[in-house]
Amino acid sequence: MTPEVHPEWSERPTLLRRLDGARGLRLILLSAPAGSGKSALVTQWLAADQDRPAAWVTAERGLNAGDALWDALARAASTALPGMDDLRKHHRGPPLPRLITGLAALEQPVALVLDDLHTLGDPDCLRSLEFFIDHLPPTTQLVLITRTEPALPLPQYRMAGDLLELRMADLAWTREEAATMVHRLSGMLLHDADLDRLLDATEGWTIALRLAALSLRISDDPVEFVAEFSGTHRLIADYLHEEVLESVAPELRRFLRRISVLDRFTAPLCDAVAGTANAVTLLQVVERANLFLVPLDDHRRWYRLHHMFAQALRADLADAEPDAVAQSHLRASDWYAGHGLILEATEHARESGALGHLTRLFEANWMEYVSTGRLDLVQSWMDSTAGGRGDGDPVAAVCAAWLAALSGDRSATRHWVRIATTLQHEGPLPDGSPSLRFAVNLLRALFGYDGVPAMVESGWIACELEDDPTSRWYAPSRAGLAYGMYLMGDDKGALAFAAEAAQSGASWPPFRIMSLSVLALALCGLGRAAEAGEPARAAYGLSEAHGYSESPHAALPVAALSTVLAREGRPADARSLLEHALALRGAVVGLSGWPTLNLLTALADTCLDAGDRGAASAYLVQARHLLATEQDSGEHLRTKLAHVHARLTHLLPADPAKGTVLTDILTVREQAVLRLLLENLSVREIGLQLFVSPNTVKTHTRSIYRKLGVTSRAEAVQLVRHLRLL
User: Domains plus CATH for the chain?
Assistant: First the structure.
């Protein structure tokens, strides 16, 4: 007998439309885990179609024997389908051919539903079902409902275009459907955020949503209930144990428990974690049994478990094998580390509680986290496992210096570099770098807080200390030296070392991006802009692909690409890129000034190309101010700014509008002092004019010089008059 529609059931219009669209197919298969709402959906669908009679049989193990299944289907058909009763009385013989003959005589379309197909495992019974499907009359549609994958030639039915399949992902409730169901069962209208949390937790699994909604009826705090609802909730855990896990063989259940610590997995990883040698076979069993296995690709390589099933299994693991929890995480960490997946290895090491193992991982792979922007992980390690060891631990000191430099804390950077230079360490560091001296010089070469000549000197030392092209530290040392040479105006040297770095395939993405960027900038500097487009676009593309484009550290690829765009006659595109990168960089105070100076210089040039002289003046002033605040810029950068200055001076009209480009740099009082400096008044006379002391005037004057990037009154006056800044 076809079940009746329950008044509390919510309709699922999208799925009902899919079923309606499949009425002309021979076969419909609903294959999904327990509690997915398969039977309820088919019941609703049949009830909505009053013009087509349907017969329903719920299978059980007793129907495996002999003709029991076909007797049951024949009885159901004779009761539910008009015309079948008379045919049954006048036909004798085996029930299967009799059923086919009777159905063939019907002119009206009918449906046969076989629910709980997973209870039928007898090979002869399933072969007879295959025969029945092959000989179904065109007016008969068979609907199969099962918790496990049926042993039927589904690929053959798919190829024939005669099959609709609805599986776990198809049966997941949509946001709108879930909102309706929860409201109908609980009487509550959840806030959007709470509804999203509930959907994320349940992944749209029908029984979980239903149990959550029923629990909300009696919940004192719906928000807290939704936040804490998981696979360990007693209603979900009880359901999974009774309806799913109790029927799973002990070996398979132990396997599932142990791999439940994994967010995603492949067969070799499962073998490593579970201590098995047949994970491929076991995963095939899990997939055929519809045990909440979610494929992550189309090749049956990577999978994950449904969140709630995994949570219930983890709780089961903690109860049944408490020692296996840490052991499974540790095995996962070892496997991931051995396959170069360091972030995953670290997470499992943290979960295992093995601090020694975690520390060894961090010491060997901290640059992996830095290069992917996971500074929080490095800081967490520094705060916990390192436990303040920086003063006496080389790796901790180097990590601390990197964290400080990337966050713009120059004082802390210098402190940790000083600490590192005082420590004694023979031989390579755990991270594979050749020595502590190399690590210190690489830092100095890349960030340049001691000035450009010192960058180049440190870059040479780093290159001499790491001469193995297969080392991951080979490219960073060459990229650092190349950038220093570029800032010094040695474009040929920069090109050579940037090319060496770019050709190394062993390093981390940021250093490949850096080397390609410097390569492009050096080519432009040598007048070979046509060759610069490829490395510039490659650098920018890598920056976007690795999620660096919104980072303040993306200045170099932006400078390279914008330079190329400007040479290609696209100053507006170049300016847009540069201004965005400058805004990102400006959001973090204290970062190395050299990449910022690249942006400002390029912006000034680009604005001049576009005819925006006011903006060019402003960027030039900012660049001069920045140059004055950095240590030992070298002659080339000063010459470069002078070139921009000369372009600007030459292009300014004879009677330009008065600019206000200093208002963002100088205070109101400093602007007043600067105006009086232009009038050739003495410090004392300026003080009298402004009613301040000579010392106050001197303080303002020093600040003005620093901000304008000049060292004397004469330079300041010349700059302001040439650029019409006031």
Answer: 13-171 (3.40.50.300), 175-229 (no CATH), 438-651 (1.25.40.10), 668-723 (1.10.10.10)
